[in-house]
Amino acid sequence: MKKDLRIIKTQESLRHALLSLLKTKSIETITIAELCRLAQINRGTFYLHYKDVHEVFKEYLDVIVEDLRKSYEEPYYKTNYKIKDITADMIKIFHHVKKYQDFYQIIFDERIPMMYYYLLFDTVRTFMRDSIEEGLLTSQPDLQVDYLISYQTNAILGILIEWHRQEYKTSIKELNMQLITIVSLHNPIRMHGND
Amino acid sequence: MKKDLRIIKTQESLRHALLSLLKTKSIETITIAELCRLAQINRGTFYLHYKDVHEVFKEYLDVIVEDLRKSYEEPYYKTNYKIKDITADMIKIFHHVKKYQDFYQIIFDERIPMMYYYLLFDTVRTFMRDSIEEGLLTSQPDLQVDYLISYQTNAILGILIEWHRQEYKTSIKELNMQLITIVSLHNPIRMHGND
DNA sequence: ACTTTTAATGAACACATGTTCAATAAGTTT
DNA sequence: AAACTTATTGAACATGTGTTCATTAAAAGT
């Protein structure tokens, strides 16, 4: 059940044209008509595959997020809920964002729809869910774990927002240090024996 | 230096028309032409005041966020960086979001630009900045406080995102309890003597 | 009340959007 | 290779976008 070659060709042309246009102008100023002219695709054909320019961009983002997911699956030594473990995971995210900085500058732009943010949120959220220790749930029976996970996930994204606002000038090493300091503040009892 | 009455009338007409349209359709489907027809405003006049439909909506949001800011300025007993203080502040935000639920359902919608999220972020962020104890900065000289504040601010917004996704079904009382539990998890040493 | 200032209007323009439909061309099956 | 299936095309249409400009009308200043 392979996909029709014509579809692949059309979508590739559009993606390629979008990347080309993004080099000189912001995604918000790129029109469907303009994109189709450059890709040499009939405008009606565009609507057979996408609703707007953002949906073409989202296909790139899916690939990028998949890369993040893969980097996360790399095995490493896991112990229970410790600062070192959490930060080790989060550092991967920092590296990832830096690697695809050009894209994340778009994702965090104020004119862009929330959907991209949520895509990142949901991805990081699955990582967070996996890092919850089992003992926590039994020791805190009243805790609705979804709230905890969203809290922790968005806290990390808060770091990324701040990094974005400071135009990615902070080095990953420095960012890493800041995160460890912040998490340590919230976990003063666990300061000893780590790092 | 008062504003021209005609401007006020035009803007009020447009705001009123937008509210009316929002009762039956989503903001993303409302066109400038449609808005102007209902408001009985020439479309060219619209462009003298706004760039797009979102800018009209944003005027409402400015009022709403101002309401949040005011509620926050209510004096209450402040001690140093304790769970009770933080949660007391955050509960105000929960009440505020519930009060304007219809608006926040729009703000957290995935099709909506990030600008609204950032407006809320920046507002809550100023509250967070004010609640940082002075001793912290001297005891942690290497900490870039902007990262800490953005981390904490976005963590709270993470709770709101989760609330939104659960269609605001969680009661404020329950949400409050969840927050206290979560913050307590991160501050195990301070569990005693609070609440 | 009269004058000055400026906001709102309507018409026009080029271009974008979103959709339909018959004709064509390209890919897939046999 | 022929028959099929279906993606793409171009044309057309109504509507929306963003801008310009002379004209009108309403508010502000005197």
UniProtKB/TrEMBL annotation, chains A, B:
Residues 31-50 bind DNA. It comes from Aquibacillus rhizosphaerae. SUPFAM superfamilies: Homeodomain-like. The lineage of its organism: Bacteria, Bacillati, Bacillota, Bacilli, Bacillales. The keyword DNA-binding applies. Residues 8-68 form the HTH tetR-type domain. The keyword Repressor applies. This is TetR-like C-terminal domain-containing protein. Keywords: DNA-binding, Repressor. Pfam families: TetR_C_8.
